[in-house]
Specification:
Helices cover about 0% and strands about 35% of the residues. With about 375 residues, it is an all-beta fold. The chain is rod-shaped, with a radius of gyration of 55 Å.
Length: about 375
């Protein structure tokens, strides 16, 4: 649908307000739009109006400021000559001496940061102010007010101009090129999903593969966090000193270059992979290892004298404790017996008086003891 406007940047309608005595002001109307061409409605704006003498870059002979609020159509109405002047006086302008140019400056935020919207030459209507000083007072209907435009309204495709004599309506539909007479069906919406760009009521195109990077970096630009988005990779990178130190992959995997330090790991560590060593076995303890009433389990069978062993291994390999060893000093029984099974009351023992006993019988003579069986202990006595 082809759109139309009254002017490219601003629509300006200037009218002379004249009564029995010519007032020192004239009306100014403008449609305010943003940089995208959208109408700014219900917005407080600031205007600075300058009248230049002789040319568009001529000397400013009068300047004033206004604050106005745009209506629903983005239209503002002011009266030049009734603003706040800061250069010259409006009544002192010599309208009959050379051309006059009007410069319009705008601050759409309502402040004082003005931007020039252009300069245009004032034509015949403002110069009617000069008629006050002439002898030409010819007005055919003797009504100085009925030529004034009091409003201009665009109603659909009808342009309505109202003055004291009534409203003149001009149909502008011939300027609108819309074959189906539907002002909305040409509106379309763009959307993107991955690398597919789609336009509503239209088609979809696939954008070429490329890397789009969103980066947050430091002042000198050598340390940053960024996201990479390609057709086969969505990851977050961490870079310091211009070197990538870590990366979070789409599946949640954390890749680290260098040493990873942490105050604690939450959980049992079963999800940790790629860690070399057995955590403790390749380290030398520098202090006691507190197991907090826990056990060391799954030990392999010992092979060296300093190896730890399980209880089962000790039970299964206890042997006869003394039978395969050579004593290097006296064996102290501490008033205990030597028995076959360790629990029988019958056995060989030596009391505190160094008397030798077999079973409950005593041999008091301090002579060589003959090897006898318990069944022979009845005749236990001096060896011959």
């Amino acid at each position: 649908m082809r759109k139309f406007t009254l002017t490219i940047a601003m629509a300006i309608i200037v009218a002379l307000t004249s009564f029995a005595q010519t007032p020192q002001a004239f009306k100014y109307q403008a449609v305010v739009r943003d940089a995208a061409g959208e109408i700014l409605s219900g917005t407080t704006v600031s205007l600075r109006m300058s009248i230049r003498d002789g040319s568009a870059s001529g000397t400013v002979i009068y300047r004033e400021t206004h604050t106005a609020i745009t209506n629903q159509f983005g239209l503002v109405n002011i009266e030049i000559g009734n603003g706040t002047p800061n250069i010259g006086t409006f009544s002192a302008i010599s309208w009959g001496s050379g051309s006059k140019f009007l410069e319009t400056e705008l601050d759409p935020a309502g402040g004082t940061t003005y931007v020039s919207m252009g300069t245009a030459q004032l034509m015949s209507v403002p110069y009617a102010l000069y008629s006050e000083n002439t002898a030409n007072t010819d007005d055919a209907d003797a009504d100085p007010a009925n030529e004034l435009n009091t409003s201009v309204t665009l109603n659909g495709t009808d342009l309505e101009v109202t003055d004291a004599g009534g409203t003149l309506t001009t149909n502008l539909s011939s300027l609108v090129d819309d074959a189906d007479a539907d002002a909305t069906n040409e509106l379309q919406t763009l959307s993107i999903a991955g690398s597919d760009l789609t336009i509503s009521d239209g088609n979809t195109i696939t954008l070429p593969n490329s890397t789009v990077t969103n980066k947050i970096s430091d002042t000198d630009g050598d340390t940053w966090v960024d996201t990479e988005q390609t057709t086969d990779n969505d990851s977050i990178r961490f870079v310091t000193g211009g070197i990538e130190r870590a990366r979070i992959l789409p599946d949640g995997t954390l890749e680290v270059e260098g040493t990873l330090e942490a105050n604690a790991f939450v959980g049992d560590g079963s999800g940790l992979t790629g860690i070399s060593g057995d955590n403790l076995g390749n380290h030398i303890a520098t202090e006691n290892l507190d197991l907090s009433n826990n056990k060391i389990i799954n030990l392999t069978e010992p092979t060296a004298n300093t190896d730890a062993a399980t209880k089962q291994y000790v039970d299964n390999n206890s042997g006869d404790n003394l039978g395969n060893h050579t004593a290097t000093q006296n064996i102290q029984l501490n008033d205990n017996k030597l028995t076959n099974d360790g629990s029988s009351t019958e056995g060989l023992w030596i009391d505190i008086n160094n008397d030798i006993h077999i079973d409950n019988r005593v041999r008091q003579e301090k002579e060589t003891v003959c090897m006898v069986t318990f069944s022979q202990a009845e005749n236990f006595g001096k060896c011959t």
